[in-house]
Amino acid sequence: MRDNPVIVDQLSKIYSVRQRRGIFRSEKGSVQALQDISFEVQPGEIFGLLGPNGAGKTTLIKILTTLLLPSSGRVWVNGFEVSKHENAVRASVGCMLMGERGLYWKLTGRENLEYFGALYHLPPAARKRRATEILNWIGLVDIADRTVETYSSGQKMKLAFGKALINDAPLLILDEPTNTLDLPSASELRSIVRQLNEQGKTIIYTTHIMAEAELLCDRVAIIDRGKLLALGTVAELKASLRWAKVISVEGVIPIWAVEAVRSMADVEQATRTNKNGATQLTVVSVEGSEILPELIRVLTQNGANIQKLSPQEPTLEDVFIAKTGRSLAEDTRVR
Ligand SMILES: Nc1ncnc2c1ncn2[C@@H]1O[C@H](COP(=O)(O)OP(=O)(O)OP(=O)(O)O)[C@@H](O)[C@H]1O
Ligand SMILES: [Mg+2]
Q1: What is the spatial distance between Cα 258 and Cα 65, in angstroms, rounded to a whole number?
Q2: In the β-sheet with 227-233, what is the strand arrangement from edge to edge?
Q3: Are 175 and 252 part of one and the same domain?
Q4: How many domains does the structure of the chain reveal?
Q5: Are residues 305 and 234 in the same domain?
Q6: 110-165 pLDDT per residue, tens
Q7: How many angstroms separate the alpha carbon of residue 310 from the centre of ligand 2?
Q8: Do 10 and 66 sit in the same domain of this protein?
Q9: Which of 58, 228, 255, 289 is the most exposed place for a label (fewest CB within 10 A)?
Q10: What angle do CA 40, 77, 216 make, to 5 degrees?
């Protein structure tokens, strides 16, 4: 049973915090960041951890990489229990956490990689070779001998990703690696992640971007407010919404028209987002209902100008909305 690369068993984490109450007073409190989470990651998969800001993703990753201890529950990484065999766990994972803040800005890109190679006890020749290999891979060879402080934030992010590869570990744990990357760089990084996966590496990939999880991950765990809401392949998660119909409406849609749609009897959810200057309304209807004629009537009566109306395949976002009754904070980055 202990042979999966990651086993998380009834994990909870509570942070103690002090809250300020006036200038001289503060009060002890606590934050439940993870609550009774269990799952296993299988060898060779890209496992997505998906959740909005504050869901508990980074906390979970810090526990997996021994930077934090669990409050309760047990966790095994590559067969080692995190609270007992810290060094063995660390040696067996490649980790990208804190992005660019995990780099030495006064060292060059190459020196950073060689330095972290030395921490993993790679002999000098091997770490030089490995650093060059990684720099080629992530496309930073041309600037490898400049200090990191002169890098753009995207270049720093790529180097931080490269750092996770230095010890050639069988398990890679990446915390929002495409954060701050532009479109082409993000998709380049995902393609390197895919290649590494094809070479046999198991990958845990954290993101709050639904589309990214859909594109990349074999299985996805959706977490929200410290709880595991759903776990499965993207197809399985979408199939859990088979009962619902999702209709997308584009056009000029005033807020009161959205309210009117929400109060329709057969409408489960209506979420309004902006898409290329137009408003997009995503309407999820309850089981077996046919709401189209009524939907059009309600929208036009409330002054909406409908430009496009189409039934949709449910997305992971729709699954999230169905499970929480909330939309993820709108992500304006398009990838
Ligand atoms: N050191 C800490 N002390 C107290 N509370 C913390 C600490 N770190 C995180 N938290 C709280 O724990 C919860 C989970 O935070 P965490 O950073 O794990 O979320 P996340 O899913 O990584 O979010 P994001 O997408 O914003 O990175 C949040 O409510 C956060 O405020
Ligand atoms: Mg985080």
Answers
A1: 45
A2: 93-96, 171-175, 202-207, 46-50, 219-224, 227-233
A3: no
A4: 2
A5: no
A6: 999 999 999 988 999 999 999 999 999 999 999 999 999 999 888 999 999 999 99
A7: 35
A8: yes
A9: 255
A10: 55
